[in-house]
Design goal:
Blueprint lengths: L17 H5 L1 H11 L2 E4 L5 E4 L2 H8 L5 E2 L24 H6 L8 H24 L2 E3 H17 L7 H16 L3 H24 L8 H7 L4 H14 L2 H15 L2 H9 L4 H11 L6 E5 L3 E3 L2 E3 L4 E4 L1 H4 L34 H18 E5 L4 E2 L7 E3 L1 E6 L2
Parallel strand pairs: 2-8
Antiparallel strand pairs: 1-2, 3-5, 4-12, 5-8, 6-7, 9-12, 10-11
Helix pairs in contact: 5-6, 5-15, 6-7, 6-11, 7-8, 8-10, 11-15
Length: 393
């Protein structure tokens, strides 16, 4: 399948327009009303699905919207398919099966003491310094440390993983293909070393992702590709979501106080923060056949973006969608995707975010210390977040 540009529908939506970068939610609100299946002219042309119902439908229809040709827009410049994300059922199902036990709720629960220890380490240093750039000093190193612990890698590897992950994402957003390729190969090198170490000394497959993949009989190349994928997927979205959550809370001291007084409400708050500030904007599929959506013809081979960030504020799915409502029910947000490709690491991400927010709220009162610098498509969230924090009496 190849992507096709249709002149008659080009140019409805530009993800890198300064207005979109500055406030994508305002633009998405307009487009949901006037052009809910929008055409983007960049990157060879693509469609953007902005309504909740359309995103849900496309996410659950792999025979119509395939993941086999890549899952991001713009297309990842680094060649190669990585299981399970670049496969459709039934292949996806087979690749996903060995991942499920290590990501089970009980296993994540057993990691909570270690995760809390990491949260206290980074939050403690942040409070002692009176604050700083929350993304650089807390969210990014913390998310990497949790991922390293989850993968049973040596703690000394965390800094290298973090640096490579950040460099790769920066190159991707800058459309610097050469650097993205080079850094990706370095990430593959880390993944190969981890796989070789686990092949030499396996851990129980129920408790270790790499051992589970090897025990499933997967090829060395396939296992390495999956680990390489986790090094990005387990870091970048969590950092963005944590940054957005802390930015919201830093601007709402009343909500901070309420969550300190009612820490059990942090779970509800987290779900709303994930809905309001979903970090993945440009997740993609490729149309397998022609299909009509909102009066527009999506042709076989066209690239289609599932804009979760827009879908999660669709008033047709969420009452008062731009407001954080504790206890919102139902809250079927799409922050972790939908369908077969729903994020296998959702429990881990929720756990590390909940613990970090809990530790931060207990440690001190925090406010914005400057204007955040925002990331842009295909991501959403602060790239830089100046925060001042003072200890809670």
């Amino acid at each position: 399948m190849t992507s096709t540009v249709h002149d008659e529908v080009a140019g409805d939506f530009d993800p890198l327009d300064p207005r979109v970068v500055r406030d994508p939610h305002a633009v998405y609100a307009e487009l949901r009303l006037t052009c809910p299946v929008a055409r983007g002219g960049r990157w060879g042309g693509f469609w953007a699905l902005l309504r909740y119902a359309d995103v849900v439908t496309a996410s659950a229809a792999p025979t119509t919207f395939s993941s086999a040709e890549g899952i991001v827009i713009p297309r990842n410049p680094v060649s190669g398919r990585r299981a399970p994300m670049h496969y459709d059922p039934p292949e996806h199902t087979a690749h996903r099966r060995p991942l499920n036990p290590p990501f089970r709720d009980e296993q994540i629960g057993e990691l909570e003491p270690d995760i809390r220890g990491l949260a206290r380490r980074y939050v403690g240093a942040f409070v002692a310094a009176g604050g700083g750039d929350f993304v650089e000093e807390v969210a990014s190193p913390y998310a990497t440390a949790v991922l390293t612990r989850f993968l049973n890698l040596d703690e000394s590897e965390a800094t290298g993983i973090q640096q490579l992950s950040e460099r790769f994402e920066h190159a991707q957003k800058a459309e610097d293909t050469a650097t993205a390729e080079s850094v990706s190969q370095e990430l593959y090198g880390l993944a190969r070393s981890a796989v070789a170490a686990r092949r030499a000394q396996a851990l129980p497959a129920r408790d270790d992702v790499i051992s589970a993949l090897l025990a499933d009989g997967r090829s060395e190349e396939s296992v390495t590709g999956t680990v390489r994928q986790l090094l990005i997927a387990g870091h970048v979205p969590v950092v963005l979501a944590l940054g957005s959550a802390v930015r919201h809370l830093a601007a709402d001291e009343e909500l901070q106080s309420r969550l300190r007084a009612q820490p059990e409400s942090i779970v509800d708050a987290l779900e709303e923060l994930l809905r309001l500030y979903t970090p993945n904007e440009g997740f993609a599929r490729t149309a397998v056949r022609d299909i009509e959506l909102a009066g527009r013809t999506v042709r076989a081979g066209d690239r289609v973006a599932l804009v979760y960030t827009a879908a999660n504020r669709d008033p047709a799915a969420f009452t008062d969608p731009d407001r954080l409502i504790l206890g919102r029910s139902p809250n079927r947000h799409l922050a972790f995707g939908h369908g077969a490709h729903k994020c296998v690491g959702a429990t881990l991400a929720r756990t590390e975010m909940r613990i970090l927010l809990d530790e931060l709220l207990v440690a001190g009162r925090f406010t914005l210390a400057g204007e955040p610098t925002w990331s842009h498509w295909p991501e959403y969230g602060p790239a830089r977040l100046p925060v001042a924090i003072r200890r809670t009496a």
